[in-house]
Amino acid sequence: MDLAGKKLEFACQSIYQHLRRAVQNINPLRSCLDTTLTHLIRQCPNIPGAALAVGGGYVNTSVLSHEFGHCLGLYHTHSGRGCGDNANCSENVNESSCSICEDLVCDSPTDPCLSGNVDLNCQYIGPSGFTPDVHNIMSYAPPACLNRLTTGQVQRMHTAILNNSIISDRSFLPTIVSSSNPICSTSIFSIPNLPTGVIITSWGSSNTNGLSINSTTRAATRLNNFNGPVTISATVSSSCGSVSVPPLSVWVGSPKPGPLSQNINNQPFCSGTEKSVSIAPEIGATSYIWSSNNESILLVDGFSISAIIDAGNPGTCSFTVTNNCGTTSQNYFAVVSDCSGGGGEEMLVYSNPASSMFSVQVMDSISEKDHFARLFQVTLINRYSQTVFSAQATGRNFQIPMDALPPVVYSLDVFYKDVVL
After folding, report:
1. Range of the domain at 238
2. Which of 217, 248, 338, 375 is surrounded by the most beta carbons within 10 Å?
3. How far is CA 286 from CA 86, 181, 210, 260, 323, in A?
4. Which tops the pLDDT comparison, 21 or 392?
5. What total of structural domains would you count in the chain?
6. Residues 146 and 25 reside in one and the same domain
């Protein structure tokens, strides 16, 4: 029987009961450290866990960090491969099974179990074929060698904290805060409630051409009339080392509606049918509005980022997004066919909207050749019913140059086999 372990367990229970009687808001991670024990004791019974015990010469060493790591969801880097740890499966040496085996973290190298396989100079002397991290806190290398964790391990601990309401309510997790989001011109970033001794050492922007950050003043400035998302990163440091703060996504400038969840200018979109579409939500958006240029031929029933389009004839629907920086509208042209048979002729148009070149692809289920025996007529008509482009072709694919045309809505007619597609 491990009498020292029993003594430590009893001591932890006694201390916990005393704390529970004395303080209603107890520490969510209960720990018992006893340097008077002659035995070397270290234990965190569960992963993740709510209590740990460290005794003897292990107190105030990296072993304490090791046990805290277990309580926050970290497994041994050799889990499933030896030293009595069979909690998980054995990871392939090439790390191809890293997400489901060993420590369930993919940026820690495969570990054969470092107990007895690392010398006093922290050099690996174990079986060939492995390149383990002899400094990883969750390994069994000598305690004097253990001084770091991987990014994946830190992320796993963050997840464990966030998924435990008791711990997360009483723990400090650095969070980036922006004075405005969206950012129309400038903003100030901060990380509030930093503990004593912790400082911000760096700031970063995922798009420095769209949003720059002054690391000293923490002021961010919009550049080049950029509109779009930017990810903000930061690093905090203390005497114990540095850690990356969870990034913050912000929107810079006016809204920028993206593509629909499915094409409405692609076959088949039959007259009298409906299509459900949506657009990705935008950070900081205050309103979304759907509309139709002609509800008698194209009915749009929209709410928030989703809409149902009921097509009678080809037409255009509009999606308008507003945020504190402005309002932007995007038009989407619906290509509608009667789908009544007669050869199965359809057309595909892209990109829509187009800035330089507009491509048209005619499809005929009867013929799979690149060229058709009959001509088809392509006509582009502006909103004043004026023809701005017209040409004939036999090839399945056709392109219309848009560079010289003003940026407005156009109608496209393709006349093939005596019908307008």
Report:
1. 185-252
2. 248
3. 52, 11, 22, 19, 5
4. 392
5. 4
6. yes
